[in-house]
Amino acid sequence: MITVLSGGTGGLKLIQGLVNFVEPEEITLIVNTADDFEWLGLYVSPDLDTAIYLLAGLLDEIKFWGVKGDTFHFLEMIKKYGYEDWFSVGDRDLATHLHRTMLLRKGYTLTNVAALLCRTFNIKVKILPMSNEKVTTFVKTEKGTFHFQEYWVKRKGLDRVIGVNFEGIKQAKPAPGVVESIKEAAGIIIGPSNPVTSIAPILRIPGIKESLESVSTKKICISPIVGSGPVSGPAGNLLNGIGVEVSPFGVASIYRGLIDEIFIDKSDETFTERISSLGIKVICANIILKSEEDKTHLAKLVLERLEANQ
Ligand code: FO1
Asked: Which pLDDT score, from 0 to 100, does residue 232 have?
């Protein structure tokens, strides 16, 4: 079994490649839920939904969130009543949020809801939320402290970041199956997801990083940074904000002691020596995942490295 830690973009693109080589039943995806938030009274879990829509073949892969071909009649109407419309929930997407919210109110957990959604769409990859407890990312900026979605979507990630806080993380527990999937994995992948707001919340849940450290299974990360910028999303500003160099070296330094190998872009070969000095083996490859071929090629290389003895 292969276990992948992921946020809502890079890690999921790698999964698209992995399913060409590994039976979906043999893949477990541990998903960040610290971006979750309440929107008009509904529980929205963006990264879980992106994973589910992707594997259901429903994802708008241009935006890499929401349902492809969705309409926005609900949003247009609710705006007339004076509600904010900065978070673009489409009509079909709305059904998922309503469904999840109703199930949570009945006492279901995020894990239960993810499993039900997977059953609905015949998804065989095991999709696990990182935790069933509420953990929320707040981004501290020069203009104030904002929920991650407010920082990124409403304010377009433009404010200078000073710090990041994961509210509720100390009390949170790994969701059922998370620690088991780490302990039983034949290989562990940290996807090319944002290390600050996608992977860090997963690792900081008491018990998850410790279980990763306790297994001798090979752990490989794919850098979400190429050169001095993120492949997508706010990773650059966020790394800067927590005082980490925005480079593949900066990413490697965050995972020092945790990972065995890191994939960096072939254009970043010059970082090899610095990263190697952290005790991390460097593999240079094309890590910009645009086409199906890119995803398939990288997935193949990562699987080869997971199987390699050194
Ligand atoms: N991202 C945006 O940039 N703008 C949006 O209006 C937006 C709406 C949205 C609705 C549902 C959903 O599941 C995700 C949505 N996202 C939107 C993506 C999301 O904000 C983030 O990209 C993830 O949380 C980061 O992984």
From this structure: 79
CATH architecture of 2-134+170-307: 3-Layer(aba) Sandwich (3.40)
How many angstroms does the Cα of residue 283 sit away from the middle of ligand 1? Answer: 31
The residue whose CA is least distant from atom 1 of ligand 1 is: 153
Query: Over 80: is that where the pLDDT of 310 sits?
Result: no
**What atom of ligand 1 comes closest to residue 86's alpha carbon?**
6
Residue 8 CA: which ligand 1 atom is closest?
Answer: 26
Q: Whose CA is closest to atom 21 on ligand 1?
A: 46
CA distances from 5 to 21, 62, 73, 111, 226 (A): 18, 22, 35, 15, 19
pLDDT tens, residue by residue, 256-277: 999 999 999 999 999 999 999 9
Average of per-residue pLDDT across 191-195: 95
Q: Is 101 within 8 Å of 41 (Cβ atoms)?
A: yes
Task: Tell me which residue of 28, 100, 107, 95 sits closest to 66, measured CA to CA.
Answer: 95
The whole-model pTM stands at 0.97
Kind of pairing between the strands at 144-147 and 136-141: antiparallel
Average pLDDT over residues 23-37: 98
Distance (Å) from CA 28 to ligand 1 centroid: 23
Cβ atoms within 10 Å of 184's Cβ, excluding its own: 13
Cα dihedral 113→84→137→36 (10° resolution): 0
Nearest CA to ligand 1 atom 2: 153
Domains of the chain, residue spans: 2-134+170-307
Ligand 1 surroundings by CB, under 6 angstroms: 7-9, 35, 44, 46-47, 49-50, 65-66, 87-89, 93, 149, 152-153
- State yes or no: pLDDT of 230 exceeds 80: no
Sign of the four-CA dihedral 128, 173, 87, 234: negative
